[in-house]
Design a protein that fits this description.
The protein has 283 residues and is α+β, with helices and mostly antiparallel strands. Helix content is 42%, strand content 17%. The chain contains eight helices and eleven strands. The strands form four sheets. Strands 5-4-3-8-9 form a five-stranded mixed β-sheet, sandwiched between helices. A two-stranded antiparallel sheet has the order 1-2. Strands 6-7 form a two-stranded antiparallel sheet.
């Protein structure tokens, strides 16, 4: 699925320093060729190349496949760390959402990988960015959130494989890019894209549940997920009428079961009381 260019360009360019008035003044004039790359073409079902190499926050060379253990899904974002507005808004919103989840990245549920699209950025800035977000998250230093940097080729290959387009504005020394988070299965298969500058904890949890193919979360989580479906027009999860009806049926059976259990226990108590009264009655 290809998202409308105008919608994504308006988000990224406005927040990147180009005003909405400037976009409006442009009217029907053609955008610069590079701006046409600011788009997302969803590559659902494709598996990213685990041999792509990057550097972690400590300057160690790592393979992208190192973060896919075959058990846990991965939440992937493409940003850059010196971004003046958009990336800060997006990553701050993601951090806030992570704080509202009962799962923590790096535990048995999922991992997060953020890759810089700016090849000029190195491990030092990635380390500082990670520290600032983990401090805001306030769940310790062992959170499984990797902040990676890489060379231009590795970045372009990853962006091409995920279908995320971006463009460099030399005049402002900034990157224009869409705001999107991606959910990948434990084997690196792209499962879902969620868009926007804010993220509902429900959307993140459902994305991870879907990407894990039932490997994370409990039975209740999976029942709730069955009541929602991904709305491609919104880029988010929404209620699924049939699923809600099914959940209502399960809830009704549960309530009826509790009622029947209560009546059964009550009948046993009354039966026991009648036996006791009969035994104590004078002959």
């Amino acid at each position: 699925m290809r998202l409308p260019l105008t919608a994504l360009a308006a988000i990224t360019l406005t927040l990147g320093g180009v005003s909405a008035q400037a976009l409006a003044a442009a009217g029907d004039e053609a955008l610069a060729p590079a701006m046409h790359s600011i788009d997302v073409e969803e590559h659902l079902g494709e598996v990213i190349d685990g041999d792509l190499t990057f550097k972690d926050r400590n300057g160690q060379e790592v393979r992208l496949g190192d973060y896919f253990d075959g058990e846990r899904p991965v939440l992937l974002t493409l940003n850059y760390y010196r971004c003046p507005v958009l990336c800060n808004v997006q990553l701050n919103a993601l951090t806030e959402t992570l704080g509202a989840l009962d799962w923590t990245a790096g535990d048995e549920h999922f991992q997060i990988v953020t890759v810089s699209i700016d090849p000029k950025e190195g491990p030092e800035v990635a380390k500082a960015k990670r520290e600032s977000h983990l401090k805001a998250l306030d769940r310790g230093d062992d959170v499984g959130w990797a902040f990676l940097t890489g060379d231009a080729l590795s970045i372009k290959l990853l962006a091409a494989q995920t279908g995320v387009g971006y463009a460099y504005d030399a005049e402002q020394d900034q990157y224009a890019h869409p705001a999107v988070i991606m959910f990948l299965a434990p084997d690196g298969k792209i499962v879902r894209y969620v868009y926007g500058l804010t993220y509902d904890p429900k959307d993140v949890k459902f994305g991870l549940l879907e990407a894990s193919e039932g490997r994370v979360g409990d039975t209740i989580d999976r029942i709730i997920l069955s009541c929602f479906h991904y709305d491609a027009t919104l880029g988010r999860y929404g209620p699924f009428a049939f699923g809600l009806m099914r959940l209502g049926g399960v809830f009704t059976i549960f309530i009826m079961g509790i009622g029947l259990l209560w009546f059964r226990r009550r009948e046993k108590r009354l039966g026991g009381l009648r036996k006791t009264m009969h035994a104590e009655a004078p002959t």
